[in-house]
Amino acid sequence: MYTFTNRLKIGSFILMAVGILGIAIGFISAPGTVEEAKAMVASNDVAHGEEGTESMSEGTPAMPEDGTTSMRAEEDHGALTEHDGNAAQAHGGEHDASHDEHLLHQLQNKPWAALYVAAFFFFMIALGVLAFYAIQRAAQAGWSPLLFRVMEGITAYLVPGGIIVFVILLLSVLHMNHLFVWMDADVVAHDEIIQNKSGYLDPTFFLIRAAVYLGGWIAYREYSRKLSLAQDDSDDNSKFKLNFRISAAFLVFYLISESMMSWDWIMSVDPHWFSTLFGWYVFASMMVSAVTVIAMVAIYLKSRGYLPDVNDSHIHDLAKFMFGFSIFWTYLWFSQFMLIWYSNIPEEVTYYVTRIADYRLPFFGMVALNFLFPVLLLMNSDYKRINWFVLMTGIVILAGHYMDIFNMVMPATVGDQWYIGIPEIGAILFFAGAFIFWVFKALTSAPLQPKRNPFIEESKHFHY
Amino acid sequence: MASKTIHAFYDDDDVLMLAVKRVKAAKHHIEEVYCPFPVHGLDKAMGLAPTRLAITSFIYGCVGLAVATIMMNYIMIEDWPQDIGGKPSFSYIENMPAFVPIMFELTVFFAAHLMVITFYLRSRLWPFKAAENPDLRTTDDHFLMEIDIHGDENELRDLLIDTGAVEINIVEKESH
């Protein structure tokens, strides 16, 4: 049995406390009026003047094209801002006033978006681990049963993490923030594209869908965990077989619900834009982060003397998955980009124009973190067996995939007013603390090694 | 001078692996093991030096990437600039996304094909080459361990039978 060390517990509490402080500072310092917002941007321009102008001047020629296309891109960018500012235009009228109000909304969104990105990121890790676990169950994998309790521990975070994400979505529906612009009736009234999608993008339907996804995922997690524990004291394999069947059924539900979840919770922050492989793209990010966290928790537990039968070959296999899914993520990232870049259709290409103009460093930086680092660090077969090496690569991968979610959510919610400051780091620390606390608390509740899994002997002798 | 070689047959890869470990532990030098299919971990158990094929593959991949870049730059930018999809441009880097699939494919193509060719050359394999394996059954369902006899023949034979060999032959080998 694993005991939650006091040092780790206190560490997670400190992370949560510091995180709450950061989140609170973010909310308190968000501007209440247009004047405050303008003053904030003005003072920021003085302080970060250099940075700001640099990104602006670099931004325009960033899109690789000649005169015609770059003009089109400019137009698109203009069109996007206008759409986002539609609500403001309805009240205001004059362009300056609408721009200022738009700025206010962006700055007011900032602490919410920071909270949402971090909440979703840690929730996504737990969900990815659940999918990975279901794949192992459905495939009746022989190498992984020794890691099942680790995976079950991580998926325990699905419950608190899912509830937090749901509450944030609920608050969005209640107009506490403007993360989802299509929830604003004023915007929809002036926007024909959103009107055409209003059958699907309906606040009540949106919440019902979210509840169905979360309900399905949590139900599978709890049931599978119960069967997994019951199998330990069982005298036949019936629990194991039942777990195999429900895991296969869950995977069907998961693939559909995960894809729809990515449209609902992430893609709809840009309600005009759509991408048909978005579900896969989010899935790739989710999977690579999930496998990384499984490897990190397993390595940590091993370093503390637990999981004595987990050997280098298990870590090697996890590192292979980290390597493979990193390449898979890059493949999807590029596929999505290239088709949109090539066809250059205004309503699609705005997505990348804003990212390349205003988010240059995070947008291209994450490709270095998510592709170059894992590929070069984990390419050598022997390096995949060196635990600290896998751990360091894992940290880079997690940072890169946080940036990925950041790049998905921020441009539509805070526009060019982004930075990674106290609210963002506070939110990461808070959810990291909550994640660690919940996961390791769940790990204490059952023996770390399944006793009567029919494949446990194969897993113990696993050697590549 | 002729030397004696022992051929031990096995019919299971797990038995073979354990046998290799025991023969190595008994300080005998295994000349070669013939298998109908690759056995994972056999090279490590036999104490063979790690393969350098992966390094050559990486180098071939880099060559492929370079060839693709130079080729596309020459074809699409320098020799005959083309306007495709409304993107006239005289710069490689600005049109790079369109070339990435080609760069990727040629990297894989070079790495894969040249690695296989290197493997054949290194293994001295070419078309119509006479087979070197001493027994036909090693292409079907048997594994063959080849050990040169230096010390006590019977002791080695007993050891091999003990490790689960299904057949043991002793052959005279002409020295080269």
SSE inventory with pairings:
The complex is a heterodimer of chains A (464) and B (176).
Chain A: H1 6-29, H2 34-47, H3 49-59, H4 67-84, H5 86-91, H6 95-138, H7 148-155, H8 158-173, H9 185-189, H10 192-196, H11 203-232, H12 238-266, H13 278-303, H14 312-343, H15 346-358, H16 360-378, H17 387-413, H18 422-443, H19 456-460
Helix pairs in contact in A: 1-18, 2-6, 4-15, 6-7, 6-8, 6-12, 6-13, 6-17, 6-18, 7-18, 8-11, 11-12, 12-13, 13-14, 13-17, 14-16, 14-17, 15-16, 16-17
Chain B: E1 2-10, H1 13-25, E2 30-34, H2 42-46, H3 53-79, H4 96-122, E3 143-148, H5 153-162, E4 167-174
Antiparallel strand pairs in B: 1-3, 1-4, 2-3
Helix pairs in contact in B: 3-4
Distance between the termini of chain B: 9 Å
Largest interface (CB within 8 Å) is between: A-B, 16 and 18 residues
**Strand element count of chain A:** 0
Spatial extent as radius of gyration of chain B? 25 Å
Report the average pLDDT across residues of chain B: 89
Class from helix and strand fractions of chain B: alpha+beta
From N to C, what is the helix and strand string of chain A? HHHHHHHHHHHHHHHHHHH
Question: Helical content of chain A, roughly?
Answer: over 70%
Question: Approximately how much beta-strand content do the residues of chain B carry?
Answer: 15-25%
**Total helical segments of chain B:** 5
Calculate the mean pLDDT score of chain A and round it. 87
Coarse structural class of chain A = mainly alpha
**Beta strands of chain B, count:** 4
The assembly state of the depicted protein chains is heterodimer
Number of domains of chain B: 2
Shape of chain A: globular
Q: Whole-number radius of gyration of chain A? A: 23 Å
Low-confidence stretches of chain B: none
